[in-house]
Amino acid sequence: MRTTRITLAAMGISALAYGVWRLLDHTSAAQLVAYAGWLAAAVLLHDLVLAPGIELVGRVGRGRPALQGALVVAGLVLSVGALVLWRSTARHDPALALLQQDYGLHLLLLLGLVAGVAALTRLAPRLRRGQTPRLSRRA
Amino acid sequence: MLPRPPEEPPSWWPSADPGPTRGGALTARLGVLAGSSLLVCFVTGLISHYLGHPWSWLPPPARPAWLYRLTQGIHVITGIATIPLVLAKLWSVQHRLRQWPPARSVAHAAERASVGLLVAAVLLELVTGLLNVLQYYPWPWDFVAVHFATAWLVIGSVALHVAVQLPAIRDGLATPLSRRGTTRGLSRRGVLGSIGLGVGTVVATTVGQVVGPLAPLALLAPRRPDRAPDQDLPVNRTAAAAGVGTAARASTYRLEVRGRTERSFTVSELESLPSQRRSLPIACVEGWSRNAHWQGPSLLDLVASVGGGASSQVTVTSLEDGPYAVSSIRDGQLRGALLATHLNGQRLSLDHGYPVRLIAPGRTGEQQTKWVTRIEVS
């Protein structure tokens, strides 16, 4: 394990050094400052906004496994979907076939599907035990 | 030496309790998934980068014609999938942000700083990569150069992180994931399954921009190459955006071919040259691709008509200015290249590069030069 760790660390440090050199070689001082700002913003946005937000949402699902699962899936789909939805509001030439879909509707469909599957997993054990919800028993 | 912090955190310090679900078994598995995904993204990115910026001593291959389509398609889809994966991995360790004391030693402080760099570089790389796919560039640097450099920062800091955490990773992987739910909700297995479903949904709803048969599922795909209004193929830059509309349609247009001798062709002369048909994909840096049927004179025939041959180095120049104005082509790609006059059975449209565009196997979309006006053979 020691050899693996030393080899990995050496490879990592070499790759880091090459990355830093490429960066310095291809950017001006002003661009580097902006880049450092973006790096810092990425960490701060994640650690101070996104992570506490996830904790808060997580509390909603506490003690309810189906809801927790649905929140995890929905959150991960939104991590990409929200960016795509946001950019689709900008105008793009239709010839590009870029961001021409109705992403709001598509996200609603996907989130509805997630909610539906979660509701099913919640109901399935009761249905199996014959505890059918009242509505269907009447029908 | 760092000043010694008090044993107990101050009363306002948030709790570092990991909660019932987090733990080494889950983190190690998420780490393996996110790390593997980053590695695939890195390697396919390097191959794509080489195909777009080949070294002079190693000509880019012409076969398979879909090589760039494959590497860039995988690069973009794994990059998109890595966003939710990395967020899940970060969630699994985010209680450690609140650990007390914040740093036990200089080495511990350095290790935490390196994790900070890792997180920053990964998030920046993935988000700017996705924004590039969405054709949005709100930063002041050259995207390709900085994306390439940051990729090395990411893979280097991942390797370093794995080296530091290897014993914990081994322990975590050796610990079975509990199936049992806790009083507060999902089991660890349930959490991992939900994360898998979330990431799987993202992949399933975007991969259709590369894999044609999955296009009906592509609800979140930025591109729908199957729904292009112009000759059944998307363009990435219209003639209007490139500022070539007038020059491309002008009666004074000529294609100049310069080698040992020089020739000049009008549009009708180009259209009357013997033509060939080829089926070749357009594959773009943004990850989308689509196959199309092309027809036009062989580039090699034109090169031969001014004294060149299959071993010539050929430079193709567009009517447009800027970074896509010139591309060079040689070897296998040259032998397989057409100067297309027709696309999918129709005369090439203005946005697709009228009067003629270059189309050759294995090239990146931006090297398939449109609105060609000059060919130089050396």
Automatic annotation (TrEMBL), chain A:
This is Uncharacterized protein. Keywords: Membrane, Transmembrane, Transmembrane helix. The chain crosses the membrane at residues 33-54, 66-86, 106-124. It comes from Luteipulveratus flavus. It comes from the Bacteria.
From TrEMBL, chain B:
It holds the Pfam family Oxidored_molyb. InterPro entries: Di-haem_cyt_TM (IPR016174), OxRdtase_Mopterin-bd_dom (IPR000572), OxRdtase_Mopterin-bd_sf (IPR036374). The chain crosses the membrane at residues 30-52, 72-92, 113-137, 143-169, 190-215. CDD domains: SO_family_Moco. Residues 249-378 form the Oxidoreductase molybdopterin-binding domain. Keywords: Membrane, Transmembrane, Transmembrane helix. PANTHER family: BLL0505 PROTEIN, PROTEIN-METHIONINE-SULFOXIDE REDUCTASE. This is Molybdopterin-dependent oxidoreductase.
